[in-house]
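The records we work with from here on pair a chain with its fold. The integers have meaning only within a learned vocabulary of local backbone shapes. A complete example follows; check for yourself that the lines match position by position.

:::
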Amino acid sequence: MGDPPGSLASHPPLRRARDWGAEFYGFSLSPLLRILRFMGDYWLTTLSAIRERDPDWRAIAAYEAPVRRFLARRFPRLPVSEREDLLQEVLLAMRERIVPRYDAEAGRFRAYLQTAITNAVRDHLRRRRGHAPLEEVLVEEVSPAEESELDVLDLEALLVRAVAEVHDRYAKGPDADLSLVYVLSGVLVHGLSNKAIAQREGLSASQVKRKLQRARAEILSGLFRQLLGPQAPVERCAELTRACLRAPRKEARLLEREADARVRESVADLVRRLRDARTSLGGGEGGEVDLLRGIEAVFLDA
């Protein structure tokens, strides 16, 4: 059923924003209904609008798609429908047991995922007795995940949340700038060049470049706010991170110049994590390739 003639939703720019939001989020455009799906098929099922007002669900929302792809990588022989069941169980375990007890000072959130994922898989295997051949194969795969695997999962969630914040800020409200949202989607969702985005959106090349620079700076700042807290010098961290990634040979010198030890150490750690993720995902498929493109688009492009 279409929109009633004359309604706000029938207005072309607003309809375009709504339809673009459906593409990005998996359905209608609304804050936190779906975290930005810039890496493949994001946010299609679990965290529905019913859960959006629950702060505990919001705390784990960005992990849905990363955990889904993690399960696909670790258990490719398991039917997709069963992996989806596992995903629901992992998220529920995070909601009920991890979030209430999580202490940020005790370690990164990903450290708590190992037990949740392993226990969910083992419980699932116990329930599916009678499928011996597949079960025997899966038992061999239920081994502790490598630290690098969990770090990639955690990094995905951080990126998704940071991009979502930028999207939500500019999709509506006092700072609304739909052209910035469209430009960002052109890079992250469609993998378009600046020239192609300019042609599609009717903008000049310099306008596209400025909007992307603005969005990228805010994404990086949002990433550091998650890592260091709102009072940290996130803009300085963001600027130094991009400088190190764009000029790897100058990284040591750039870090040495930074007087703030917290900034220096945080940037060095994030740069290492990003490079490790690019290395481990460079030969992947599907979601892995999308994550690699997302990393390069946000952190490396001009």
Remarks:
- The CA atoms of residues 151 and 226 lie 15 Å apart.
- DSSP finds 14 helices and no strands in the chain.
- Residues 1-50 have pLDDT under 50 and may be disordered.
